[in-house]
Design goal:
The structure is a single chain. By secondary structure, the protein is mainly β. The chain has a single domain (about 5-120), classed as Jelly Rolls, CATH 2.60.120. It has helices at about 25-30, 105-110; strands spanning about 5, 10-15, 20, 40-50, 65-70, 75-85, 95-105, 120. The strands form 2 sheets. It has a 5-stranded mixed beta sheet. A 3-stranded antiparallel beta sheet has the order 2-1-8, with no helix packed on it. The mean pLDDT is about 95.
């Protein structure tokens, strides 16, 4: 599975490997205790419903910073956070989100991701 940003009618690959957190346990575990050298994928959280507070995350038990992209149910970017630090207690998106994408730190800048752009995965 790959992750794309749709820009000017083209699909631009932003992650060649994607893991899906589609169960309560996978969403709970997230990237806790993952090693930085093993994090060569994007982790996509499928949330039960679109909301701000239901999309809140933490980075307890994480060992490295990450970039976080919040998407609405239409998979449009509604918030971007660069370099979310390990051991942070809370990150709540500015707008309701139905999906969360956790990526390697620097991904938002590298791919010039912006609010309002559409993301797809296949």
């Amino acid at each position: 599975m790959r992750l794309f940003v749709l820009r000017n009618g083209k699909k631009i690959t932003i992650a060649k490997k994607v893991r899906i957190a589609d169960s309560a346990f996978k969403r709970f575990k997230g990237l806790m205790l993952e090693r930085k050298e093993n994090f060569d994928y994007a982790l996509v959280f499928l949330l039960p419903n679109e909301s701000r507070y239901g999309a809140s995350i933490h980075s307890l038990f994480m060992r490295f910073p990450i970039d976080v992209v919040f998407l609405d149910n239409g998979k449009k970017i509604v918030d971007l956070v660069k370099g979310f630090k390990p051991w942070s207690l809370n990150l709540t998106p500015k707008k309701p989100a139905g999906f969360i994408v956790e990526m390697r730190e620097g991904s938002i800048k590298k791919f010039r991701l912006e609010n309002g752009e559409k993301i797809s995965f296949s």
